[in-house]
Fold each of these.
Amino acid sequence: MNPKKHRPQILNFTTKALAHFKHKVSLQGKENKIKLGVKKMGCNGYSYFFDFVNKPNKSDVTITVDELNFLIPPDSVEILKGSQVDYAIEGLNQGVRFINPNVSAVCGCGESFTVEPNPETSTTNGLKKK
């Protein structure tokens, strides 16, 4: 499957991100699904998270891309909608990067962000170490 042609409504994944998640899932054992979303925290409102789990919650939205199962909590769907998930290596830092068109502001340290009720075309490159 060509991830560039895959355009789910909620998230898009780069080839590097899919390779990263495939590698991480191969090391997990039973926790072979990726839970990905946002949670309230930080100085600016929200922060991205991901974790490896073995089964979804009943309310999770499931996206399957290139044989990987991504689980998204329902309260994260609107905030993530249209985002691209990438994996970047920048100097000594490496991690999953979210390019989110719904973000209206990012805190100075880059760890948290704000979403306006009707977001327009702002973007952010939040880098999470994993």
Amino acid sequence: MSTPCIICVAITGSLPTKANNPAVPVTVTEQIESTHEAFEAGATICHAHVRNKDETPSSDPEKFARLKEGLEKHCPGMIIQFSTGGRSGAGETRGGMLPLSPDMASLSVGSNNFPTRVYENPPDLVDWLAAQMLRHNVKPEIEAFDLSHILKARDMVDKGQLAGTPYVQFVMGVKNAMPVDRDVFDYYIHTVRRLFGADAPWCAAGIGAQQFTLNDWAIASGGHARTGLEDNVRLDRDTLAPSNAGLVTRAAQLCEKYERPVADWRQARAILGLRELST
């Protein structure tokens, strides 16, 4: 497989705190520094949430704006992807940062169970978020927690709600949602190729101890990989991850194992059909 592998680093998320791992970057300054290290280690997408001073999740567009400015300065060319996830806000506040026109944003197109609650993505909100992304030239990353979410993405393309070929990410290992199951994983790949074409790019994310497993499966199967402290704060049961860059380095080593080059930011932008930069 000669297709370069895009490594996405999910730097912070909404749940992990410094009590879980002191390396979790919380302030905007910490996030910029952590992302810069991960960028140098090979990550070309930064999946970003922002936090309040007390480490609780935030949807404050001003924080997203400062983060975007810092990443553009210190990680030139890196793909900036903002989260519109439901833990940091409700309703349309989840898309309040989209007018900043990041390169990408996450888009969950259906609801599912989470460990202690329902992750609600009602159709009217999904439609509104998709419309905002079209308006502000933001490419969505379809976060597929279930097979139906991939099929929904195809329906949205057919209706003109999504532009171009979607970038679908399989999320596996969330308690009460889709477990890490190899047959399901392989069928997800089959479904993406059937609905969007054999060359449609896709990614996979594993939660907690399953992160390395999903990195391995995705890279070996020709897909792209997500890693980072949002999804997993450990290298193994007894060892905390030293940084986001440390987790990116581990994913890059899998690329070497499977003889796949790690995509640089220019290659990543080309694969995902994003605008070219002169940087």
